Amino acid sequence: MSVQGGLVAELESADALVSAVDALHALGYRAVETYAPLDLPAVERRLRLGRSRLGRYVFGGGVIGALLGYGIQWYADVRAFPVSVGGRPLHAVPAFIPATFEATVLGAALTALVGVLVALRLPALWHPVFEVDGFERASADRCWVQVAADDPLFDREHTRADLASVGAIRVESLPETGT
pTM here? Predict the structure, then answer.
């Protein structure tokens, strides 16, 4: 996977970040990423981030877990090792419910875990923005906006001027890597 270089700009507040994202979107930039110490639904709406499909996958993982859990119990009790005790039925649905529920939860939880790791591209021990001095403040009191080098409008000098014009405190270049 190749991490593209680009430019990252430090902004003073969440309001400045929202304004910068609006301005960059109006200028035509689409490969924009934001970093902030708090959740900003206004930025998510402006970036037009779609609704996550993870919920559907988790539901599917739960259904598959339930089917597998019930199916394994049914196969073991009815086909592989049928034991008739006291005239009880081989296929006892009430006895299968607790383990089926547990298999449902397990399937959904594993799907959610894998889905989050894939969606966030984790584990990622390094990212180019970590090389920018002061970026650690993104988890405390500063907001950052990045324009990736693969954006169709990206031109290092022109984009640097655009980022400066939207209220950036400073604009830094990101290193390109071929990891």
Answer: 0.72
